[in-house]
Design a protein that fits this description.
heterodimer; A: 324 residues; mainly alpha; 4-stranded parallel sheet; 4 strands; 51% helix; globular; B: 822 residues; alpha+beta; 7-stranded antiparallel sheet; 10% strand; Myotubularin (chain A); Prot-tyrosine_phosphatase-like (chain A); Myotubularin-related protein 9 (chain A)
Chain lengths: 324, 822
């Protein structure tokens, strides 16, 4: 599985032999590959006007292009704002809650992202085909798809260390602009142009898979919530800056502590461990049907639902397993 | 024994795995592309490599055939699959038939193991004479016995009105069973019609999946327009299963359709399955089963009769109210005259009677039907009756009267001479409306919600919009809120409550039982829950027959009243995970059997009718059946000394709409692909069981040690006792019996390893279903047509060498279809 940004084909259909060669080099003899474009065909075509575009079939004969529509930042941000508003709505009416949840489209985005990730994973696992994922810039939806596909395919990504390295590799090193995306979250008054809950959506998708495979992850919900919090505001330097380049310019390595060094201490780690974990070497295929996707209460209803009983249940669960 | 594998930090694989997951190629290697066309220099980067694809072929098949996680199955449950698959896996498929265990391995020799399915009387005209796909003659069936060695083919049906035994079985071959979520996936097989079940058996030598559907579960049959492939038949079941068949010949389809229409609409109780169902228990066991629950005992447990309440025999021969039980608790001060007087002023003579009594503060929940007040009518006795109820609770100076209907409905009833209590006529009552809609609204609401569930690959907004539009969760919340209100009045204010709706047998039953459940932790235990249903629903004349359409009747009478109560319990379980002794599976099985008519508990509309039919002498009790299998229904998080299990539950009432969730475990129960693939409950049960086994082993070893010491040293028992502190309290009783002989011990030892299939030296390998385990257990699981967990289901449906797409993942499948269309 590879990721990239869009090819700069432009309106006149430029091509680049080296690019074709490069991606063809990943194909096994006689096999076709898949290019998953995280934009819809329309959007991709529009991008051509700005010099972007998508791979022409004629130039990439061994690749099959699939368009999967994952929304981009401003739409996601609006969705988050609506969702948080719905969750804080104190009205007594069930209809209003459901229609607000629906209007936020948050779960729709979750479904889209998971679907694209499953598709990528499916191409790799079931057909043994190479997959190239890209959107426009390859720093947002692309990363969601590639990192989720790895979680589905690779058991190592479902361990705490493995997940940490996945975040480092697929988000930090891949240049997801955390500073731009995670600036204000849902309550910002001024609309930030680059703000988008891309990483939160990713974490939410991981939670959805975790919910469907409660025994296959070494970490628990708290771990994901912790990452969500630190992505927005942190005493650690890990999520600062927009890319590796900026981080090294800021000398964050020298000036700040790494989140991972703190998390990986055993006393912190114990909070994030899933008591049910049992190494599962198989591919886990989540269901993306609407019935299977739920609102992530741990994040969105964290402050307005009584969690006492759920916590008690969790403790009980731990004590049962500990006792064993 | 948790072992290092489970504490992930120590796991060898977790160390230094950063580079291992994917090889990041250094950027400098790829100058051409960098120069080239990629925006922002995001050149293609290899980030994940499927090693199994790149390196070795064998490992690919591994990842293919096991493309799903394997939940740790409780050993007992896996074993239990042998003798009897759980009813929900195959709908009507009964877990009571002992022979089923051998089904998978049944060779021709075993075909002789006839199954007495039992039957109702079938009119002879149903026997089709035509030779063709739809066989009905015994000969036709016998031919098949050879070709398909299924013992149930030699079904012997005992028609109730005929002494002769008839083989009554219609069958159609080459029927396709469509998967509801993906049209590309269909299984070819044979459809059998027996007197009690519709059975679909897949073709194929290894994975003979069977689908059994009881006739009484079928709610509608729809014949759709014939297509090129055949004639589709859509069967919708009351337990929310939807079966889509395609029958090659239109004639056959019509025959099946006509036969099913007749078979699923019995007109007499005697035709129902429970009268022929025979779980091979003797008479004594059956009587024992019916005695499992005793309502008198239950009232005693509540603390009545006492100074304020007594049993009234006024309804001895159902003389006052024929839908009430014979024994009713009423206030001591209410004389027979008052009761009879009050009953005449109440709809269907359902006078106020005790439903729940709180002995801590004397507050009570009573139930009745609406008063026949019209616009101005009064009844002195009825007023006295309410007065008596209020006085039976000396701690409070007023009584809540809760009308569970919307005010508008209650007002409309006044025009028909019914209505509600006028606060001016009754002294010291506080009147309250709680707007729960009527059965017709609820029926339509469920219908709408099921339509949403049935959508093929709906979008998220389709689903949420449909869910909202159905109003189902709103209705559930209304019932819960009513229950919470009453529980609060009783527990916190110490005020007695009289609940009624129109006739006092639908909404009243829902609300009373939700309130009781919140108030009394006993009802949150398994037995308590059975008692609760027995008390508030069965004994007080909830019209099971009409509401759940057991006999052919008015479709307008059908409504998911108890389904809603069961869902309320589930919603509570989600909010209070430790508070209930039973688990979701228990609720689902109760729901299933309310419709199945396999047991006599829920037959008829009232106690009177059940007595007349001599239900207890002629049928079996569901509760005994569930109680026998209670190990399957336990909630591992339940502990009787846990704080959540004590006292009253206080669910949040106000703006907690989000607490009410769609119950896919119930309404999409047969779409296994939609559910979590690993069950926390099963995992925890397995852990618990393992713990118990280890404890037993410890105990055995301790005893052995003690015995050895006793015989060798002949002086102390100290060593044996040293083992004690680590043992569980529950086991200490048997622990004391030092009289355990070595013989017993060896028995224990024998039975111990036999429980773990992998002859476990390491417990882990026994519990984690690894690839090998999966494969080896394949035949058994598939033979049992178990759908309980996605894994086994997968393993039997998609052979390891099979197609290149994860066809078992229906959700994704549909997306795949979308992707192909693009």
């Amino acid at each position: 599985m590879m990721r990239s940004s869009q090819p700069l084909t432009g309106t006149n259909g430029r091509r680049c032999k080296e690019d074709e060669k490069l991606i063809n080099a990943t194909l096994r003899p006689g096999k076709r590959g898949y290019i998953i474009d995280t934009r819809s065909l329309n959007v991709a075509q529009q991008a051509r006007a700005k010099g972007g575009g998508f791979e022409q079939e004629a130039h990439y004969p061994q690749w099959r292009r699939i368009h999967k529509c994952i929304e981009r930042f401003n739409i996601l941000q609006e969705s988050l704002i609506k969702l948080v508003e719905a969750c804080n709505d104190q009205s007594h009416n069930m209809d209003r809650w459901l229609s607000k949840l629906e209007a936020s489209n948050w779960l729709t985005h979750i479904k889209e992202i998971l679907t694209a990730a499953c598709l990528a994973a499916q191409c790799i696992d079931r057909e043994g085909a190479s997959v190239l994922v890209h959107g426009t810039e390859g720093t947002d939806s692309t990363l969601q798809v590639t990192s989720l596909a790895q979680i589905i395919l690779d058991p190592r990504c479902r361990t705490i260390r493995g997940f940490e390295s996945l975040v480092v590799r697929e988000w930090l090193q891949a240049g997801h602009p955390f500073q731009q995306r995670c600036a204000q979250s849902a309550y910002s008054n001024s609309k930030q142009k680059w703000e988008a809950p891309v990483f939160l959506l990713f974490l939410d998708c991981v939670w959805q898979i975790l919910r469907q495979f409660p025994c296959s992850f070494e970490f628990n919900e708290q771990f994901l919530i912790m990452l969500f919090e630190h992505a927005y505001a942190s005493q650690f330097g890990t999520f600062l800056g927009n890319n590796e380049n900026e981080r090294s310019k800021l000398k964050l390595l020298q000036k700040t502590m790494s989140l991972w060094s703190w998390v990986n201490r055993s006393e912190e780690l114990s909070k994030f461990q899933n008591p049910l974990f049992e190494a599962n070497s198989l591919v886990i295929w989540p269901s993306v049907a609407p019935q299977s996707l739920q609102l992530w209460e741990g994040v969105f209803l964290r402050w307005n639902r009584p969690s006492k009983f759920l916590d008690e249940a969790h403790e009980e669960m731990i004590s049962i397993i500990k006792y064993n | 024994m948790a072992g290092p594998a489970r504490t992930g930090a120590e796991h060898p694989r977790c160390r230094g795995s950063v580079a291992a997951a994917g090889e990041v190629e250094p950027a400098s290697d790829l100058p051409a592309s960098k120069r080239g066309t990629r925006e922002e220099n995001q050149f293609p980067l290899l980030i994940y490599r499927n090693e199994s694809v790149f390196k070795s072929r064998p490992s690919k098949t591994e990842s293919r055939c096991g493309g799903r996680a394997t939940p740790r199955r409780p050993r007992a449950a896996a074993e239990e699959l042998g003798p009897a698959p759980p009813p929900w896996s195959t709908s009507g498929c009964p877990r009571w038939v002992p022979q089923r265990g051998q089904r998978g391995r049944a060779g021709p020799g075993q075909a002789g193991g006839e199954r007495m399915l039992g039957a109702r009387h079938l009119s002879p005209r149903l026997l089709l004479q035509r030779k063709g796909g739809f066989h009905r003659s015994p000969a036709a069936c016998c031919v098949k016995v050879d070709s398909i060695h299924f013992y149930f083919l030699s079904i012997q049906v005992r028609a109730t009105h005929l002494t002769a035994k008839l083989v009554l079985s219609g069958s159609v071959e080459n029927v396709r069973l469509l998967d509801r979520l993906s049209s590309r996936k269909a299984s070819l097989g044979t459809l059998y019609l027996t007197a009690t079940h519709v059975i679909f058996v897949e073709n194929g030598s290894e994975t003979r999946k069977e689908t059994w559907v009881l006739h009484s579960q079928i709610s509608s049959i729809e014949k759709q327009a014939t297509t090129a492939t055949g004639c589709p038949l859509l069967i919708r079941c009351k337990n929310f299963q939807v079966i889509q068949l395609v029958i090659p010949q239109e004639r056959d389809c019509h025959d099946v359709y006509i036969s099913l229409i007749r078979l699923t609409r019995p007109v007499k109780y005697e035709e129902l399955y429970c009268f022929s169902f025979n779980p091979k228990l003797d008479k004594e066991e059956r009587e024992q089963g019916w005695k499992l629950l005793d309502l008198n005992e239950e009232y005693n447990r509540m603390g009545v009769p006492n100074n304020y309440w007594q049993i009234s025999d006024v309804n001895r021969d159902y003389g006052v109210c024929d839908s009430y039980p014979t024994e009713v608790y009423v206030p001591k001060s209410a004389t027979a005259h008052i009761i009879v007087g009050s009953s005449k002023f109440r709809s269907r003579r359902r006078f106020p009677a005790l439903s729940y009594y709180c002995k801590d503060n004397n507050a009570s929940i009573c139930r009745s039907s609406q008063p026949l007040s019209g616009f101005s009518a009064r009844c002195l006795e009825d007023e006295q009756m309410l007065q008596a109820i209020r006085k039976a609770n000396p701690g409070s100076d007023f009584l809540y009267v809760v009308d569970t209907r919307p005010k508008l409905n209650a007002m409309a009833n006044r025009a028909a001479g019914k209505g509600y209590e006028n606060e001016d006529n009754y002294s010291n009552i506080k009147f309250q409306f709680i707007g729960i809609e009527n059965i017709h609204v609820m029926r339509n609401s469920l219908q709408k919600m099921l339509e949403v569930c049935e959508l093929k690959s709906p979008s998220m907004s389709d689903f949420l919009w449909g869910l909202e539009n159905s109003g189902w969760l709103k209705h559930i919340k209304a019932i819960m809120d009513a229950g919470i209100f009453i529980a609060k009045a009783v527990a916190e204010e110490g005020v007695s409550v009289l609940v009624h709706c129109s006739d006092g047998w639908d909404r009243t039953a829902q609300v009373c039982s939700v309130a009781s459940l919140l108030l009394d932790s006993y009802y949150r235990t398994m037995k308590g829950f059975m008692v609760l249903i027995e008390k508030d629903w069965v004994s007080f004349g909830h019209k099971f027959n009409h509401r759940y359409g057991n006999l052919d009747g008015d479709p307008k009478e059908i409504s998911p009243v108890i389904d809603q109560f069961i869902e309320c319990v589930w919603q509570l379980m989600e909010q209070f995970p430790c508070a209930f002794e039973f688990n979701e599976r228990f609720l689902i099985h109760v729901q299933h059997h309310i419709y199945s008519c396999q047991f006599g508990n829920f037959l008829c509309n009232s106690q009177k009718e059940r007595r007349e039919l001599k239900i207890q002498e002629r049928t079996y009790s569901l509760w005994a059946h569930l109680w026998k299998n209670r190990a399957d229904y336990l909630n591992p998080l339940y502990r009787s000394d846990h704080s959540q299990t004590q006292g009253t539950l206080h669910p949040r009432m106000a703006p907690c709409n989000f607490l009410y969730k769609f119950w896919s475990g119930m309404y999409n129960r047969f779409e296994k692909g939609l559910h979590p693939r690993q069950s926390v409950t099963d995992y925890l049960m397995a852990v618990k069981e393992e713990t118990q086994q280890l404890e037993e082993e410890l105990e055995v070893l301790g005893e052995r040690l003690a015995n050895l010491q006793k015989s060798q040293l002949n002086d102390n028992k100290v060593k044996g006792k040293q083992q004690d502190p680590s043992k569980h309290l529950g086991l200490s009783t048997s622990n004391n019996s030092l009289a355990n002989t070595p013989q017993e011990y060896s028995n224990d030892l024998k039975s111990f390893p036999s429980r773990s299939p992998s002859q476990g030296d390491e417990e882990d390998s026994a519990l984690i279903l690894t690839q090998d385990n999966l494969k080896s257990s394949d035949p058994d699981l598939s033979a049992n047509s178990d759908q309980e967990s996605g894994v086994e289901d997968l393993s039997c449906r998609s052979p390891s060498g099979g197609g290149c797409l994860p066809s078992e993942d229906s959700g994704k499948d549909s997306d795949e279809a979308v992707f192909l269309a693009v």
